[in-house]
């Protein structure tokens, strides 16, 4: 191999340099370590490929090297922090390596804000994005320029009749948002609480029974949280209780949708599951409407009460994907509650003592504060909007077609909003009432989450049940893992294990 070929191979070996910042990043989490291993392996394979190709056709290697070097230079140029500064863009990197870091590093946005300021740019794979940290700043942007923003859809939206609620056009959204806000409000959920309590006691009791046989290693709380969340949503949305024939039919039909990743297009198998679910829910809704005296209060009956033409296909499709997305969110939140209270047992003791007759504190207030603090630290929504035209904001130009991401969790970790923001301290919500410019875990405005009341009821029922008769502790834990949603959600380790027993039961 001559000297020219060797130089060309070296040039090709430098092509993955845009990923060098990723490889230098400290692997603090399993996902980041996996990404680094994949990128490093691809780099080695690329070098071996270049060497192999050079041995057969040096001339072709020259052309490949030229194109690769040009692409590398362009990526480097676009990935510079100062790229676009002359036309008013904020600092930040559009490099693909930063996109991968944002996926793999939970604290990426906090680190980027420290480096670039509270408004910065990045590329989320192929989507150039303006990131904003600070709820007051973000709300002001969306409020002042509300006509310049549109929703950011997801691939599954095409499979939903009329579109998913969050991605509907303004007129259609106004109609259905009002219906869902009322049908998912606390008065409509109250009737389901006794059923939720019963299901919760049975499920937690079963876990306690399983723990008796193996007190050392414990059991994973994941299946418990998933089952409780699913059962709660199925009861509230559709009036179905676990153990009934209709419930089992629903669960069997739902199995296909439960395995579907909402970040992907709906495939043939998922569409078949949707068709089966639609037929089941149409028949079930018709039965509830025709038998009002024997039908439990649920979202389906509330929708019909609010509008005699409901629920229609748009409502049913939206409820199916609310079940898919929101029940997974709540299951993850229950896992976070177990982790947070396991690491801070004094708060579980306070909740338990408040539930006794001589308790001096209000149990509901304590639980609500714990849930709020867990949401603040671990699982807050992010807000995405697409720019429909150029916008001037805080001295920057935000280009048409770009995404704007309001980083809610990172905003909750700001010292300007919360004292000692990294500390788990539910008492901060006992001392003062939170306001939307400081705390908004479910989003805000017309496109905020409709299921806040249901989320609160499920979490409250879960913690009240634990406090009423069970003792538990964490026996094993591990590093955090990616959750079910690509860009925002993290969840406790799959290695998390707990032991649980009925209170006053012999050890």
Helicity, as a percent range: 40-55%
What is the percentage of strand-forming residues?
5-15%
Tally of individual helices: 20
Main sheet, how many strands, which sense, barrel?
5 strands, mixed
CATH H-level homologous superfamily name of the largest domain: Cytochrome P450
Query: Any low-confidence stretches, pLDDT <50, length ≥5?
Result: none
CATH hierarchy: architecture of the largest domain: Orthogonal Bundle
Query: What count of structural domains?
Result: 2
Instruction: Give the tally of β-strands.
Output: 11
Would you state the CATH class of the largest domain?
Mainly Alpha
Order of strands side by side in the largest beta sheet? 1-2-7-4-3
Q: Label the overall shape.
A: globular
Mean pLDDT: 84
Strand-pairing-aware structural class: alpha+beta
* Computed Rg: 26 Å
What is the CATH topology assignment of the largest domain? Cytochrome p450
How far do the termini sit from each other? 74 Å
List keywords for this structure.
507 residues; alpha+beta; Cytochrome p450; two-stranded antiparallel sheet; 11 strands; globular
Structure report:
The protein is of the alpha+beta class. It contains 20 helices and 11 strands. It has 2 domains: 3-132, no CATH class; 157-502, Cytochrome p450 (Orthogonal Bundle), CATH 1.10.630. The strands form 4 sheets. The chain has a 5-stranded mixed β-sheet, sandwiched between helices. It has a two-stranded antiparallel sheet with strand order 5-6. The protein has a two-stranded antiparallel ribbon with strand order 8-11. Helix 11 (222-238) runs antiparallel to helix 15 (313-343), helix 15 (313-343) crosses helix 16 (345-354) and helix 16 packs across helix 20 (452-469). The protein is globular. The model has no long low-confidence stretch (mean pLDDT 84).
């Amino acid at each position: 191999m001559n000297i020219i070929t060797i130089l060309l191979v070296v040039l090709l070996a430098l092509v993955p340099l845009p990923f060098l910042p990723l490889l230098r990043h400290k692997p603090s989490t399993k996902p980041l370590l996996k990404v680094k291993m994949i990128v490093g392996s691809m780099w080695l394979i690329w070098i071996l490929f270049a060497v192999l190709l050079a041995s057969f056709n040096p001339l072709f290697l020259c052309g490949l090297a030229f194109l690769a070097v040009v692409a590398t230079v362009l990526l480097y140029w676009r990935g510079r922090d100062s790229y676009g500064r002359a036309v008013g863009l904020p600092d930040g990197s559009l490099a693909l390596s930063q996109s991968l870091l944002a996926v793999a590093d939970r604290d990426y946005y906090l680190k980027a804000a420290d480096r670039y300021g509270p408004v910065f740019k990045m590329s989320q794979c192929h989507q150039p994005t303006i990131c904003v940290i600070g709820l007051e700043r973000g709300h002001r942007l969306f409020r002042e320029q509300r006509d310049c923003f549109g929703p950011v859809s997801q691939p599954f939206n095409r499979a939903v009749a009329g579109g998913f609620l969050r991605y509907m056009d303004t007129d259609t959204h106004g109609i259905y948002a009002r219906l869902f806000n009322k049908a998912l409000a606390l008065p409509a959920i109250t009737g389901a609480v006794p059923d939720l309590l019963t299901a919760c006691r049975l499920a937690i009791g079963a876990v306690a029974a399983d723990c008796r046989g193996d007190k050392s290693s414990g059991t994973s709380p994941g299946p418990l949280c998933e089952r409780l969340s699913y059962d709660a949503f199925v009861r509230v949305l559709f009036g179905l209780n676990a153990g009934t024939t209709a419930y089992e039919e629903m669960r069997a039909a739902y199995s296909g949708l439960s395995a579907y990743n909402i970040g992907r297009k709906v495939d043939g198998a998922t569409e078949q599951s949707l068709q089966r679910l639609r037929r089941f829910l149409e028949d079930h809704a018709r039965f509830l409407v025709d038998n009002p005296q024997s039908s439990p209060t649920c979202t389906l009956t509330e929708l019909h009460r609010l509008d005699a033409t409901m629920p229609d296909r748009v409502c049913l499709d939206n409820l199916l994907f609310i079940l898919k997305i929101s029940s997974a969110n709540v299951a993850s939140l229950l896992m976070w509650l177990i982790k947070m209270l396991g690491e801070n047992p004094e708060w579980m003791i306070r909740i338990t003592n408040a539930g006794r007759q001589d308790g001096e504190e209000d149990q509901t207030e304590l639980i609500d504060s714990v849930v709020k603090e867990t949401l603040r630290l671990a699982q807050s929504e992010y807000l995405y909007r697409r720019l429909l035209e150029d916008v001037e904001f805080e001295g920057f130009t935000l280009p048409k077609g770009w995404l704007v991401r309001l980083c809610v969790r990172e905003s909750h970790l700001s010292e300007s909003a919360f004292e000692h923001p990294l500390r788990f301290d539910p008492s901060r919500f006992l001392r003062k009432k939170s306001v939307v410019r400081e705390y908004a875990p479910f989003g805000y405005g017309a496109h905020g989450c409709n299921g806040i009341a249901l989320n609160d009821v499920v979490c409250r029922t879960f913690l009240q049940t634990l406090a009423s008769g069970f003792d538990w502790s964490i026996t094993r834990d591990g590093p955090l893992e990616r959750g079910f949603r690509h860009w925002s959600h993290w969840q406790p380790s799959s290695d998390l294990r707990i032991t649980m027993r009925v209170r006053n039961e012999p050890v």
